[in-house]
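User: Reviewer 2 asked us to show a designed sequence for the structure in our supplementary figure. I'm pasting the structure tokens here. Could you produce the per-position amino acids so we can include them in the response letter?
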């Protein structure tokens, strides 16, 4: 095994570095560490390799005697929300803003929480043992895990996000969305329309290989043009798994928001702040900054919970 498991899970070129054998082993390792008290919530983005790796992951989970609840294509924050509501562990199959050839698996502990360092280390040890050794047979008979589909997962998430605004509305507001041909292609328009906005949608026809392709938060040029042409109040662009959003106003000014590591809140990041983070001392590399001012964070949560994360 050449890939390491960490805070962002494991990523690599699907079916080359990130093989079905490795992902099945990760499913087994996850159950051994996180337990099988509740069904694992499993969702994915729109990559071509998603269904293949989903099948591999589910096979590993079920082989260890845990059940699985499939939620289909949903943003990472939505999967964390379902995990929280059911107090269940979860897995997201996505490589975020990477191109379609890549894919990955990110795990959440029960309740939609990021894994602690100790849990990450335990999962990695189990994964290494399973990938390099000859694992013993899994459960049999009634001990084999079963798979069910959660067909209303998106509806529940949309209702939760709309409800989080506590009655505030966007009636008549012209909004442009760039879904990046990724996981938000259905849920993001549904949220904004439920809030009453007049929504124009870009890049919401995923074909398995066009996720993040010259669109979404990594390429907001189309969004910027559309906001100007349509005289929209704002434009929003998502990455592949919709845990970050770029916002562009009517003057073509931009700002960025990332979900924090628990995917239970969002953190604003301006271009200047992004540059400052990029040039931090190495000892702090990779640490996502928290908002300096709580009031600013509160204002951002009130405005942007509807487009990326649950509270």
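Assistant: Here is a per-position design you can include in the supplement:
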């Amino acid at each position: 095994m050449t890939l390491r498991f960490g805070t962002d899970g494991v990523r690599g070129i699907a079916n080359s570095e990130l093989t079905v054998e490795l992902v099945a082993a990760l499913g087994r390792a996850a159950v051994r560490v996180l337990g099988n008290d509740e069904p694992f919530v499993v969702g994915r983005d729109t990559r071509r390799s998603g269904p293949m790796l989903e099948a591999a992951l589910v096979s590993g989970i079920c082989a260890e005697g845990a059940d699985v609840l499939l939620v289909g294509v949903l943003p990472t924050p939505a999967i964390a929300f379902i995990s929280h509501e059911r107090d269940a562990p979860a897995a997201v199959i996505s490589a975020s803003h990477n191109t379609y050839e890549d894919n990955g698996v990110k795990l959440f502990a029960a309740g939609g929480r990021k894994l602690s360092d100790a849990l990450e280390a335990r999962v990695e040890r189990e994964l290494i043992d399973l990938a390099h050794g000859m694992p013993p047979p899994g459960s049999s008979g009634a001990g084999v895990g079963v798979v069910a589909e959660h067909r209303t997962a998106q509806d529940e998430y949309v209702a939760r996000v709309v409800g989080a605004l506590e009655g505030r509305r966007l009636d008549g507001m012209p909004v442009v969305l760039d879904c990046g041909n990724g996981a938000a292609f259905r849920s993001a328009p549904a949220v904004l329309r439920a809030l009453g906005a007049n929504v124009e949608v870009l890049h919401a026809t995923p074909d398995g290989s066009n996720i993040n392709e010259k669109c979404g938060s990594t390429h907001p040029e189309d969004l910027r043009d559309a906001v100007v042409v349509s005289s929209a109040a704002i434009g929003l662009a998502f990455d592949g798994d919709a845990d970050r959003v770029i916002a562009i106003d009517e003057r073509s000014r931009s700002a960025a928001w990332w979900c924090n590591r628990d995917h239970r809140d969002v953190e604003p990041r301006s271009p200047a702040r992004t540059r400052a983070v990029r040039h931090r001392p190495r000892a702090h590399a990779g640490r996502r900054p928290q908002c300096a001012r709580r009031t600013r964070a509160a204002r951002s949560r009130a405005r942007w919970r509807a487009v990326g994360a649950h509270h």
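For the response letter, you might also mention the following. The CA atoms of residues 19 and 53 lie 8 Å apart. The two ends are 37 Å apart (CA to CA).
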